[in-house]
Fold this protein.
Amino acid sequence: MSMAATFDHEDRLVPIRTGLDPVDAQLLRSMLEGHGIKVFMNGEHAGSLNYAVRADLMVMASQWKIAEETLSKIATLPRREPLDEYGDERACAQCGSTRVHAFVGEVPTFIPGIRIEANVEDAWFHCLQCGSHYRDRFSKFSGMPIALMWGGALGAFFICLYWFIDWLKWL
């Protein structure tokens, strides 16, 4: 008997879900494996190289109906894929995850007690993966001229403070 004859068409892998975010694919995989369905995730290790790689879930053809019934019972919120100004999928500025959503409310800062109010027109986003908040565009106080102005003002302040302390020593 040949090797090909020992494997029938029910042992082949068929896709159950394609084009998934690797995190979502892992969640669905664990759900299926919890129900006793063997799952292969195509692109599982390539996702660690590049966050934009999509994963495909594959099951044996004999278990496809059971897997489809199991996944049909999962209620998920539809995910809105926010796009940036170039038409690309929006990604987190901190971790690169595509699990971001528009944010409105108080944005925590690294300075204790200071919070920024995020409005709809300010284009704030929140990453569900790492929990960071970021703006899609620069604020009106960012840029090289503003940085040079602040550097010059702080430098002049400390020079004046040094001269004042030196004058106090002279008295």
User: Anything to note?
Assistant: Residues 123 and 136 are 6 Å apart (CA to CA). The longest strand covers residues 13-20. DSSP finds four helices and eight strands in the chain.
